[in-house]
Amino acid sequence: xxxxxxxxxxxxxxxxxxxxxxxxxxSANAVTITGLAAGLGAVPLLAFEQYGVALAxxxxxxxxxxxxxxxxxxxxxxxxxxxxDIFCDMVFYAAVPLGFALARPENAVxxxxxxxxxxxxxxxxxxxxxxxxGRGEGTTGLRGRKSFxxxxxxxEGTETIFAFVLFCLxxxxxxxxxxxxxxLCFWTAAARVxxxxxxxxES
Length: 203
Known about the structure:
- The chain is mostly helical.
- The protein has seven helices and no strands.
- The protein has one domain (about 5-200): Four Helix Bundle (Hemerythrin (Met), subunit A), CATH 1.20.120.
- It is about 80% helix and about 0% strand.
- Helix 1 (about 5-25) packs across helix 3 (about 50-75) and helix 5 (about 110-135) packs parallel to helix 7 (about 175-200).
């Protein structure tokens, strides 16, 4: 929901940084993998309740996730690069709740609920992209240049990262916060399915 607004603020500096990295020979796929490694590094930190350092690892991961597309635009973008990017995003999103589940036993059930909601949003997101490809639908460009159709929703990347920040800043409230985020994710998935059905009825 907030992704289009955020893109207007972060795209110009990311583009400049991406041009600089590309000039030094960095590849977009290498940036993507490095971003995933940073995100996965947050899992043991969360498990040992090192929330401040874990938050720094999450922030670095998302910075690199924004940079890989900018590097690709200044080198060579490819369908595989887009595939690798979304794959690494999904792995990262699944890893963070796991870290909180490992940290405290009382987090486990709500982390599982959150992961289930993420599966639903991911399925609705990727399924919508497949449906759009079959229909020949294009993207609006509001969320930056994408390699495939980007289905909007209440919970998108910006909201998810904001939730992760809150989890790290308020770890004692994780069960409550995870429950709220999970409910919004289920709502997002249902809304995408409903929207896809309405578009299908119109065509």
